[in-house]
Structures are given as structure tokens and as C-alpha cells.
Amino acid sequence: MHTAASTPTRALAGHQIQPLGLGCMGMSEFYGAHDDAESLATLHAAHQLGVRHFDTADTYGFGHNEELLGRFLRGLSSAQRAELVVATKFGIVRQPGQYERRIDNTAAYIRSAAEASLRRLGVECIDLYYCHRRNPEVPIEDMMGALADLVRAGKIGAIGLSEVSEETLRAAHAVHPVAAVQSEYSLWERGAEARVLPATRELGAAFVAYSPLGRAFLTNQPPADNSLAADDFRRALPRFQGEAGQANQQLHTSMAAMAAELDLPVATIALAWVLQKQPHVLPIPGTRRQRHLAQNLAASTVVLPMPVMQRLDSLFAAGSVQGARYPDAGWAGVETR
Ligand SMILES: NC(=O)c1ccc[n+]([C@@H]2O[C@H](COP(=O)([O-])OP(=O)(O)OC[C@H]3O[C@@H](n4cnc5c(N)ncnc54)[C@H](OP(=O)(O)O)[C@@H]3O)[C@@H](O)[C@H]2O)c1
User: Fold this and answer.
1) 175 alpha carbon to ligand 1 midpoint, in Å?
2) Number of domains within the chain
3) What is the mean pLDDT of the chain?
């Protein structure tokens, strides 16, 4: 049912790298307990397995995630470090312990946030620096101007935007090249297909797919609401809760049956589907655990036959997934609703 292929590289922020990166967010926040020693071991294991793209943000664990990545980076030689794309983000401002946020895109804020991220990561240049969320009160020209200044100063290598509309992407790109757009994209979140995926491809920007495993829904161990830790963010996500959550379980059952037929883990199929959709997509599955890395990275050597792609497309066709992808507070600065 599937054939193996060599792993073709994809372009991101001036590097040709293996297409699957590592999302580090869960190592600090959102998906229950985390352990720094286990996370560091996973980071090193991912590197040994060829991962060259590591994704974080200043808001993940209120700096903890960048500091953790900094500890990992300090264990590498400068030649190893030079091969990596280390990406971080600014713009979401929260009080410790709170999910509610305000969005800051002002030039002064960007300058101070970049300095703080450089310090926590322990690097001289952030390879890819994203605006995490857009605040339209700051004109796009001003925000991109502030980021372009950071490029000229050598503090950031490339500019990215997260969860922006096609209009914002085009306006930003007219000021300074946008190297990457990062948005949620997976079998159960396909909104980017209509406009942002084609626009990024046309403009020569990479599309970085976040939550490509549907926050663990698209794995062999989908989270059940009664098994989630009290502080697990998925308790607040409509897609995992109540009637929507139960309806979505049916989708998982069908997907798991397909995976069993193909003799592949659900996660491998979910990531292979994302990779096969467009040649400029780089997914960043998140895991704290070495045991999940192999399943996830296997996706880059799996080719799903067209009939399998079509079955997945129709199983997860528009309208099939129940519930919003964010709670109300999570929509701040998201232009792709
Ligand atoms: N730009 C944005 O606004 C934004 C928003 C959200 C996320 N992100 C980025 O995208 C990255 C990835 O997204 P995400 O972490 O939200 O979601 P994800 O990658 O869709 O799923 C992560 C979840 O899946 C579990 N998992 C991973 N591999 C597994 C496997 N093979 N089998 C079973 N469970 C598995 C992880 O648990 P374990 O840790 O136990 O493996 C974790 O609970 C984040 O780390 C972050 O860097 C960006």
C-alpha cells in the first residue's frame, strides 16, 4: 500500500533541510506534565535523526521553552548550530499562568522581545523570527519595517508571520520578503488550503504547518477528555469536548481503521498526508518523547498512494470535523478564522 522513498529536502529561511521539524511548545506548556531532562534527550535524539528545524516562541512557558532550547543549542558545535533553523516568535503578551492575551506588534516591543529571545536562546541571530499574532492597529509597513531593521542589524535571519490572511501576507511581502507563514494545518484543520497555501507557494515563502497531528487527535493515542490533566489546554478546546468531541471520535475510528489496513501508525499517515499536499510545506509535529519521534519522522519516507490520499481527503472533507479549533480567547490576532 505504500512505498519508501529517499527524504527530499525542502527550503526554509535559506536552508535546505529535511521537511519535518520539531515543535517544542509541549515541552513547556499546554499538554500536561513535562520533564526538562526528557525534553533535552528528545531534542538531541531529534537532531541525531536529522531534524534541523526547531520551533519555539517567547510565550511558551513564559520563556522556559526558549531557555530549554538554548540549553540544547549550547550542547552543539558551531558547525552543527549553523545547519539549523531555530525559529521563535513575538507578539503574544500574557500574564504568568494566564491563557488570555493581548497582541503587541509595536516597533519598541519587537526590539525588546527580540533581545530577550536572543538572550534566552543564547544565540547571536534568530534564524527565523515570526510575528506570532497580528495586531492591525500597527500598520503592516511599520511592523515589517521594524523586523527589516532587525535583519539589517544581523539579529534575525528571516521574517515569518503566523496565522495571517492572504492580504496581510501580500502587504507584508511588498515591504520585505516573508520567508515563511506558519498556520495550523492538518487533516482536521484545512482552512489554509483555500488561500494561504497557494499564496505562499506563489510568493516563494515556506508554509510551516503547526499542530499537524491535531494536538494528538491524529495519533494512535487521541486524548480522551477524562484522561487530560487539569491544566491541559485541550480541556478548553471545543473539538475535544462534549458532543463535538464525541462526534470527532468517529472520524478517529475511521482513520485508525485505515491506518491498520496500511500497517502504519496514525501519526505517520497524518504527517505523510500533510507532506504530500504541497512541496513547500514543512510540518512541525510536537513531541516531548523519543518514542514518538520515529513514528513521526517515518512520514518523510512514506508515499501514500493517490487512492489513500483521496480517502483521507473525503474522510476529512469540509464540515466533517465538529467544533471550533480555539476557545474564544485564542482567536486574538488570528486572521484565518
Ligand atoms: N504559530 C502558532 O500559533 C502555533 C500554535 C500551536 C503550536 N505551534 C507550534 O507547532 C508545534 C506543533 O504543534 P502542537 O504541539 O500544538 O500539536 P501536534 O504536533 O499536532 O501534536 C502534539 C501532541 O501530539 C502528541 N504526539 C506527538 N507525536 C505523537 C505520536 N507519534 N503518538 C502519540 N502522540 C503523539 C504529543 O504528545 P507527546 O509530547 O506525549 O508526544 C502532543 O500532545 C508546537 O510545538 C509549536 O512549536 C504554533
Assistant:
1) 32
2) 1
3) 95
Query: Is 322 part of a structural domain of the chain?
Result: yes
What is the pTM for the complete model shown? 0.97
Q: Which atom of ligand 1 is nearest to the CA of 183?
A: 1
The full DSSP string for 108-176 is: HHHHHHHHHHHHHHT-SSBSEEEE-S--TTS-HHHHHHHHHHHHHTTSBS-EEEES--HHHHHHHHHHS
In a domain, 5, yes or no: no
153: containing domain:
11-331
Return the ligand 1 atom nearest residue 186 CA: 20
pLDDT given at position 337: 85
Task: Give Cα 286 to chain centroid, integer Å.
Answer: 8
Is the model's pLDDT at 5 over the cut of 80? no
What lies within 8 Å, CB to CB, of 214 at 6+ separation is 186, 187, 188, 189, 239, 270
> Which of 215, 232, 235, 334 for mutating ligand 1's site (highest number of atoms within 8 Å of CB)?
215
Q: Domain holding 97: CATH number?
A: 3.20.20.100
- Domain-embedded: residue 1: no
